[in-house]
Amino acid sequence: MTGSFKLRSRAISRRSFLITAGSFGVAVAFGGLTGNALNAAMARAAEGGYRPNAWVTIAADGMVSIMSPAVEMGQGIMTTLPLLIAEEMDADWDRVRIVQAPSDAETYGNPGFYGIQLTGGSESTRGYYDLLRLIGAQTRKVILASAAGMLNVPTRALATEPGRVVHAPSGRTLGYGEIAANGALPDPLPQATRADLKAREDWRYVGRRDIPRVDVPAKVDGTAIYGIDVQRPDMLYGAVLRAPVQGERPEVIDDAVARAVPGVTHIVPLSYGVGIIGKTVEATRRAKDLLDVTWSTSSRVRNYTSSHLLEHFRSVARDVSQTGVEAFSAGDTDAAIAHAATVIDADYMSDLVCHATMEPMNATALVTGDRVEIWAPTQGPTGTQRFAADVVGTTPDKVKVNVTLLGGGFGRKAEADFIIDAVSLAREVEGRPVKVIWSREDDIRHDKFRPLEAQHIQVGLDADGNITGWRHRIVADSVFARTNAQLFAQAGGHDDVVTEGAHVNYALPAHRIDYIRQDNGLDIGFWFAVGVGYTRFAIECVVDEIAAARGIDPLQLRLDLLRNQPRARRVIETVGRMAEWDRARDGRALGLAYSDAFGSHCAQIADVSLNRETGVIRVHKVWAAVDPGVAIQPRHIEGMMIVGITNGTGHALFEQINIVEGEVQEGNFDTYRVIRMSEAPDIEVAVVPTSGSPVGGMGQVGLPPVGPAIANAVARLTGGVRLRHYPFLPERVLAALGA
To answer: What Gene3D superfamilies does the entry give (predicted)?
Structure first.
């Protein structure tokens, strides 16, 4: 919420905030949320309690309930965001309980996502950081004002300790519970501005390593409720048979055998498939397998063969006469490269990859007249409301979304297809909830894959080896053309998610980025770090190619190119010391990569060996140094880095989706290869925050550097063999060795 972010003002009401852009203050309205805006858990927490605002409720026993506006999918955000409020209001963390915020974007929307409720893009902490701190500070001022009235002293004479207001001159104290039971809300409401926020040296919770995650105990003892665990009275189950080729429709449905399966209650023709409703999961799965459907044959995706298209993408990337959208330009790149003493040309490619979240897509829906209630592991409650309303023909305000825990998200659960399944089937049995669970085969074959892409980078060097110009061409389909057509059009056909990470902070005299969209009909989507996951692959490998061409150390080259970037230099120097970069290793080599994506600086070094006979790469250890600006929960940051590095290692070595004439060839973990525990590297993480820097995102920061670090290690190990195609399959490695 710094820099170019524009705050939206709206009229104050009993359920909203008045945010003033001038001083960046927040006035929190008193009163209660009603109806759809207040879920049952919050209703219980608020009963008889003291409610300074829509985010905080204090009970007479001193228990403080704090709303968590983002969804928990393993990244610890259910702890991180409420902790900011607790810090500023001086709550006793041992007396805090966290409540998942209801679907109410007006109150709980993320300023970093234009005010909607959406968790992704490593935007939760960055988007909510300032707002939640101000809400905490506002809450503290309300509490102090109430206590001043009870003690008949000036507010300025009071201070707070965790869960308690203290009047030092008289030695009197009031617990937050006493204030909740007997205090009156002040009128007028006190204002909170940045001046009311705590100094960093006064933080009690932020930055501590010993704050446990609030979601872990229930996950350990089995009481945690994921979407797949939801049970409702009188519930039915649903399954959907989708076309083997995306975009086809059922033309003839022979369901005679399927209808005869015991427990099946309905067969429902849909525009995109055939739905089955039944009394058990087993009945719906059996009936689905017995359906005999003739599908249309008109989809453009029938012409989609990923291996052929990737070669076409590469040829387009190489052909600089094929112009696209200029995503960024500084200096005269064409002239700089044309007059360079040496030009480095490099192609880098990435296959389609799927999310394969441990919890497959699922949702439960209940339709009653023009009202819909949904229980789902969704990353986007606001989008869920809109799509569900479209299915039923109602308005989003009549759709209530109960967000459960997510068994992995990675961008996949920001989609709405599984929501549409549940609502479409529930509409057929009005008044009864229907729970749809995708099979693993459905989950993989009908994913919204990370886009197929090819990149071509040209770098001009002068006679001394200095960079004179850098051209980066990215060829891929667009995510935004499907998910946010208005934004895509406003950007002139540029997709900054697909090209994210291409704009580096290396010192480049001339730099140009071009995006050339290829639309072949296949839906592609957000996937864990999206564009940064492959743009940094190309960039960081090319930096090593430049170092090799100049005969200099790749770590030193990065420090030279980042001479005006102290945070970047610090993480690179730190990770170099951690890995003992200059120490020789027998039969193994180290590779380095750096990224500044999502507002956090990260450098990684991978320790790699290679079996030259089989082409199998082994990643033994990865060291990582990360600067998130503000380290709200250092131990949790380490955990997120480990997740990203592990996932990124598997993505670099194994993961790929192959499509032949529109049909996905992989269907389960026997064919869609993910990293196994025995293949996971040892990981060491150093968190090195920089005082005074803005808070960065963390959820996806660990993934982008690990793939290029592996590739750069292989190049050092083999005397310069470059791996340019994700994933680094053994046959591709052998081909590179033999080239």
So the answer is: Aldehyde oxidase/xanthine dehydrogenase, a/b hammerhead (3.90.1170.50), Aldehyde oxidase/xanthine dehydrogenase, molybdopterin binding domain (3.30.365.10)
